[in-house]
Fold these 2 entries.
Entry 1:
Amino acid sequence: MITGTFYYIPLVLLLLHLLGTVVPRDPLECGRRKVATNELLVNAANSSPGEWPWHAAIYHRTSVTTDSYACGGSLISDQFVLTAAHCVIDSASRNQLGPNRIFIRLGIFDRADPNLRTMQQHSIGKIYKMADFSRNKDDIALLEMKTVAEFNDHVQPICVEAWAVGGYGTVVGWGLTENDELSVVLRKAQMPVISTLSCLRSNRALFGQSLDVGMFCAGYRNGTSVCNGDSGGGMAFSRSGVWFLGGIVSFSQMRGAGDNRCQIDGYGVFTNVSSYLDWIRDTTGLQLRSATRGNLLPRECGINYSNENHRNGREANLLEFPWMAMIFKKEEANDPGKKPNRLGTLINSRYVMTSVWFWHNEDPQIVRLGEYSMKQSEDCTTTDEGKLCAPPTKDYDVERFIRHPSVAIVLLRTASEVQFEEHIQPICLPVTSALKRFQPKRFSVTAWGVQGEFDRLSAITLTDADIRRDCSEEDMICTSRPYCTELHGHPLSAMASYNGWRFVQFGMASYLPNCNTRVRDASNIFDTYINVSSHMEWIAAALEP
């Protein structure tokens, strides 16, 4: 299929990644290796036998006596392999192949010289794909094998659940290498999930008319990406030694007219498996894991010691917004002259939520909690009862980040559990249906710098009249109040009924115009907030204990 001067091509991957430590498991479990492997961290490398025991090789029969390797796939049970829908289409006639034209090999590492002691070959009984499949929509298929796979050291299923795709995943396959040669041994590469905005900016002509809500982009632009030869392979994500299927290789850009090889410095597009869980469950009858893995967001949240409304802005009271977080580069955290890179909110004892489009993972990050005034070593205030001081601030190393694939939400997981105190508490999120539908009449914007001076935490009250209805959509909230702060990630929150009256975060600052621009033309300048309610399913699925 051609789009302008670009082509959709069957894919595979190029270069891939690792992990490994064997954990004994029950045969009914999924996503665990049975063969110990050495942990590497490279852009591209050969894998080792048994390292990816769920990866399947899909072959097309070209005649009674001949066949050819066509695609990759992922074993998700003893009878079903998940792959891309275009992998069951005849490339010449563009018609769906019959089940008798396809077979699967499991437990192989070297395609040219498979180990007959580990290999299993299975014929296909039925093929399932979505009715609306096209090359840029619903590129997913299930292959039901006639015979049951026997689980052993080299054949194991991968886990399937509502996975919050983000961060880094691993793709494996037998596709073109960096030398434009098909690999005979299974290769692996680790690559990041890319935001939809970044993907569109890289090639709007291709991705602008092909990216669907059931897809995401991943890869690098340095040669580590997906490529010709093995569409249908999975993008796997590891959590505590267990591997989960997040995506299926779908398509990438061709190098140009007349050259159907992939462009190695472009991103690849993956079918988002989480978007098709209901279809997978209904088709296979498998009991898939729940989307939220238990609610890890606390009910004791959003406790606020004041509910003052101030249209013109005010300094926050000490201990008033205890969920506010500052995020620094690690080497700058102790520099008193440095402002944080961005702001965020504490949402439970291990996660801070912030907003950023471009995240540099190589920069170690520090989360600071419990801050009030950056110019005071001790935060104190005078009350009718005398001097009141808050406990010292707490800094937490960031263990890893999880980035939403299409909007600028980033979850930061702290390296250790946050200890709640009176000046460090989580904010509530809109977890119930009633909260997601709730439309507050007043919002509170909380940040350092709201009143111009980046010193004390400040707050300003917005009314319904400050919401820009000409801008606001389901995924965003726009406000026109001409306050000034340029640090992304601060919350747009409101008092709501949840386990009593609590502060609930409904928005997170995503786009903030330059302060000088705001002063010159305040009537036409607005701030954009991500609508948190629209992304609660992803946030809940991303959290780990």
Entry 2:
Amino acid sequence: MTTPLFDITAIAVDRYENFPPLDGVIADAEAIAELLGQVGGVRSTHAKNETWHEAAVKARLRAWTQRDTPSSLLIWLGHGDSNGDKASLACYDTVDPVVANGFNALSMADQLDVDWGRRQEHDAAWALVIVEACSSGDYVKRVAAMVRDDVRQLYLIGVSGDAGAYVGELRQAFGRALARLTPNDEHVVLDDLIHELLSALPDARPEPRQWRRVLLPRARPVAAAVSAPLDVYEELMALLATVPDDQRNHFFPKFWATERVDTGLHFVGRTEEARDIRAWLRSADRGMLVITGRPGSGKSALLGSVLIRSSPLWQPILARFGWTGEPWDDAGPFDTALNLSGLSIAEIVERLTESFGLKPAAEGAGWSGADVDHLIDGLTGRRFTILVDGLDEATDPVAVAGSVLRRLAAQPHGRVLVGTRASVDDQVDGPPPVRPELITALGPAHLRRLGRDRAALAAYVLRRLTHLPHGQRPELTDDEIGRVADLITRGRDDMGFLFARLVVHEVLADPGLVRSQRLTELVSGDHRAVFRHALSRLDRTTPHARALLRVLAFTVGPGMPRSENLWAGLAGAFTDGHQVTEADIDLLLERAAPYVTVDAEYGISVYRLAHQTYRAALEADER
């Protein structure tokens, strides 16, 4: 980012002539500046070990009021004091008592008035002033009372209220707040950061002056949105953290197609099905291959594995995380991959058009179903191979199948590999569908149905319980792990990989489950039964978990945002007046990871229940 969105000026007073030193405040200031760099903040240059005499402080504040960037964060870290009538901050040469001899509230207010004199020329410019010092709450209260009445877009925070301050509190609070962001957050509401700071610092005193909502664009770690259950999301983020930025942002959007992902790290089995797909990719010049099966049968995992096997870039990266698949050097890479979940025909056509480097049908005219013709014309004569998953979750899957995918597969050199349920009526824990309308709409195609693969299920469970980061493997013997795998594979024929993944999560959350009859009872049920077991666990371990999940049960569309306290605020309606905090949401997302999906809408992260069957289980449990 060549032009900063806001300036960061820090006065970190670590050494004093007459008071104890404050080790760590300079490092704190540097860390805060680095954290805020991802939302457009750039720290003003200065010598790190500056001696902050009162004259140096005043010179720095004068320079701050003359900065080139209209908006700014001003941080003061150091000693302070108040006697109930006055409050001041200590400089290097301040003598005792600080209240009488330090940098007083009027001096700070005068600088803020000067700053406003320049800032008011820029309607959207703002100033956030944070003081971490003893009695900083009283100090900012007095500053706020002394600034001019017409000052706008000013927010002051005294980190320690009227009590003592502790070095590191502010840095830790900023770290927690920014750690909650995901790659889906294209921008950050500054008010959210302020709210989270105040939540993390209960003694803090806020003093806003005519403050309006501020939106900060964010430099995302991945230039693509992610939609995935949170356990898969965490695994993906750990994987991407090992990839250089240029490779991450060039290849991730293509190979996981900005949509719901499956890393393929735990994929096992399906040898015959994989062999059929490989043979089709090697020999077919045109047409369509459809991978279908019941919910949770492993369609997405199989397609994720196929994508990895055909991607030379990702194979060595995934190998570091335990991937042991065989590369398909003879099958050729995919030109693009796309998950259709939640997408309309217009959005699908737009994304495919962009993926192939084609120009839109009409610049600035928007997208419609009519642009399918333009896409087909642009691909005429080209060889291409496309992978799409989640057809059954598209906005209008029958129309997508017939109007887009069927036509692409009919091109002289076009190949389309599709993952889908046979019908939109085929739901988790529901009966088999009566009619396969999606298969019919796709037209002539090679069809591969995924049944229950007991051997693969057993291998999958063993892998999930043994291939864990150091220190995370549960205290279970090999025999106990084998019992988990055996019970799952001997269970109901309609319970597949999704069911196994949920049971494994419950075992990891409570290893004692394996040594009791409860495990046998659990695996004899369905996905709803596992979710109800999870609800009971969360009731015991996670404050307000049920209230937070109830909000998601009522959510429609992509999901519920955390932004501006929306999710936590709504959950408070179900807690008999008890406040729900962002920390409560953090715990829920950690402990209920496979049951909650993170997605994106309007450039921010949103959350929803991963499957509608969990909503039904929650509603039934509330009756």
